[in-house]
Amino acid sequence: MDFTCWLQNILQEKLDQDDEWSFVCRGMLQMNDDEKDITVDPVSLTYLQERMENAQQQDGIFAAGAIARPYYRAMAHTLKQCFENGGKLPSLLLEDPLNLLASKNTDRLEKIQADLAAVTPTAKGDDLDALKTFLFKKMEPEDWRVWLMMRTTIGSRDWKVMPPSLHECLTGFATLHRKKVTTTTTKTKTQRKNAQLHVLTVGAKALSKHWHRDRQVGFWGDCTGSDTAKNTHANTILIKILTNAVWINLHSLPHDQIVYEIREKQGYGVRWTKNLCDPLSTWLFRGFLEPQMENGHLVGWIH
Questions:
Q1: pLDDT in tens, 77-94
Q2: In terms of pTM, does the model score above 0.85?
Q3: Are 44 and 174 in contact (CB under 8 A)?
Q4: Are residue 167 and residue 231 in the same domain, yes or no?
Q5: Cα-flanking dihedrals φ and ψ of residue 182, to 5°?
Q6: N or C, which terminus of the chain has less Cβ within 10 Å?
Q7: Are residues 92 and 233 in the same domain?
């Protein structure tokens, strides 16, 4: 049996048992994104999707940082890569490439790697019973973030929330910005704020307010000009970050906010958020990130 199909089958088998693995198995098996009624810039979304598809075709399933559903395919890819390297985890997960950001589970990763190396010979020989025991008995559900190339840090969120898919990330970025305008009613003379759709995307709006912070490297370029020009420039920046991702994390913020964060090799990044209190909430693009720096909040991340 094909290894990816085998993995799909054991995930379904474990899901049917309805135990502590149910949530993570359900998330790995989910085939489609939860479609929401979101108004996007079709030009930006199509462009981003095409570029990400090209990157994945050329460089593999993780070439866009975020991954497409179903996630078990990415898990199978990572496991097969480990088998080819004698049970070693991808080197990127064992390193801390960014300043002031570090994984908290280094010892745990070494233990996982040792256990995986022990079952690799039988797994390569199509005897997968030992691998199944390793996945569900020697690993904990929280350990499984390694199969999606995600970090574990102090603020990492548990598996009660799955990371957004690549489609959800791109859609959140390409959503049309809603500009609040003040109007006056003739009868009551009261003012109210209405939201009017903009040509500008949420991602471009965020970059137009953020790009000036990096004065030394100039990573963000100049996000100026027409709304269409800003959209185009923001799309280019997003692609630059996603296709050079070295740090992916899912962590918490106050007020039941969950954050999905992706950073490239210099530390520049992007993030999306979701409100856990609202079951109908979608992943929203939160903004751009500067590299971690001492006293960053005090200086407004200007450097």
A1: 999 999 999 999 999 999
A2: yes
A3: yes
A4: yes
A5: -100, 130
A6: N
A7: no
